[in-house]
Design goal:
By secondary structure, the chain is α/β, with parallel strands linked by helices. Helices cover about 35% and strands about 15% of the residues. The strands form two sheets. The chain has a five-stranded mixed beta sheet, with helices on one face. The mean pLDDT is about 75.
Length: about 150
């Protein structure tokens, strides 16, 4: 401690009213790492269906955001985005997605091999009402090829 002119001792360090900024970058980095590690990205769940077979298939060249998977089970249940949807409401669910995609939405119909054709026809009619014109019928071969690409 130094001696002041008027007597007494003078402190070497002065208290500051500012928040130290040197550790803010470290804290921000640690928070970023924490949120990156703890964030869970939701993936679409596969439905337990018997996939139809095909001799050949084509790869869909579209972004994942522009592909809508519709699952059609053998009892007539329709699943869109992991939600059970009544057959009569399929067009109400698909139409907003069709418009939001800039009319580029590709509907991938994943129907059970044993589903009666009347259910497939009903879904197709609902998709026509929604305006979704790009329809792809998924098969076992496509599912295997997609699994190999991952």
């Amino acid at each position: 401690m130094a001696v002041r002119d008027g007597g007494g001792l003078k402190r070497k360090s002065q208290t500051s009213d500012k928040i130290p900024e040197s550790s803010l970058a470290d804290i921000a980095l640690l928070l970023l790492i924490f949120f990156m590690l703890t964030t869970v990205f939701r993936t679409e769940q596969d439905r337990p269906i018997e996939w139809p077979t095909a001799d050949a298939t084509e790869q869909i060249d579209e972004k994942r955001d522009n592909i809508l998977n519709i699952w059609l089970e053998s009892n007539g249940d329709v699943w869109i985005n992991d939600r059970l949807t009544p057959m009569a409401q399929v067009s109400e669910v698909v139409a907003p997605a069709w418009e939001a995609s800039g009319r580029r939405l590709v509907v991938s119909l994943r129907a059970d091999a044993n589903v009666p054709y009347r259910f497939v026809d009903s879904v197709q009619e609902q998709l026509q009402q929604a305006g979704a014109i790009y329809l792809v019928f998924s098969t076992e071969l496509e599912r295997r090829m997609a699994g190999e690409r991952r």
